[in-house]
Structure formats: C-alpha cells, structure tokens
Amino acid sequence: MDGVVSSVLGTVAALAIVGLRYPLKMLPLLFFELIWKTTWLLAFALPLHLAGMVDADTKQTIVACLMGIIFPIAIPWPYVYRKYIKESGDRWWRTAN
C-alpha cells in the first residue's frame, strides 16, 4: 500500500508543478487534494486522536495534511462559483434525432 500511496502523491506533486503554469485549469487537482486530506483527517486521524492512538507515522501524516490548510485560501472562489456551479456543464450524452 505504501508504494501505491507514494505513486499517487508523486503524481499529484508532478501535476501541481503543471498547475504553476495553468493554475485555473488545475483547480480540480486542488479540489482533489483538499477533499482527500479533509476526509483523511476527519475519518481516520480524528478518531485515532480521540482514542489517544496517534503514533509517530500518523502524526507525520497529520502535519502533512494540515499543511493543506492553504488550499481554501488560495482557491479563487468567485471563479469557482462562475465556472463550476453557475455555468452549465458540457453534454456528455447524445440525444436521438
């Protein structure tokens, strides 16, 4: 499992570098990061913390995930609202003529 996690995180890091050139196009990657880190913190780290079972590896992961606190600050929310909520989506199905 560690190899899978390392591969995914390495890929996300590489895509984040692409995001420096195309920040608005890479917003979905930022959302992915924000969602998985929040999910992990709430679903795994918080119960471990409440049970007093946080070990050194878990603590290191918690610190790394908490560094994602910058994501909500960095996201251009007015653009997200216009582009992802207000704008109608692309059609992905064909209708019969």
Please describe the structure with a list of short key phrases separated by commas or semicolons.
97 residues; mainly alpha; 5 helices; 72% helix
Which blocks of ≥5 consecutive residues have pLDDT under 50? none
The biggest beta sheet is recorded as: none
State the end-to-end CA separation.
Answer: 49 Å
Structural class: mainly alpha
Secondary-structure element order, N to C: HHHHH
Strand content: under 5%
Number of strands: 0
* Shape type: elongated
Mean pLDDT: 87
Q: Tally the helices.
A: 5
Q: Could you estimate the helical fraction of the residues in percent? A: over 70%
Assembly type: single chain
Radius of gyration: 17 Å
Structure, explained:
It is built from five helices and no strands. The chain has about 100 residues and is mostly helical. Helix 2 runs antiparallel to helix 3.
Concise structural overview:
The protein has 97 residues and is an all-alpha fold. Helix content is 72%, strand content 0%.
Per-chain topology:
Blueprint: H1 2-21, H2 27-50, H3 56-66, H4 70-74, H5 77-86
Helix pairs in contact: 1-2, 2-3
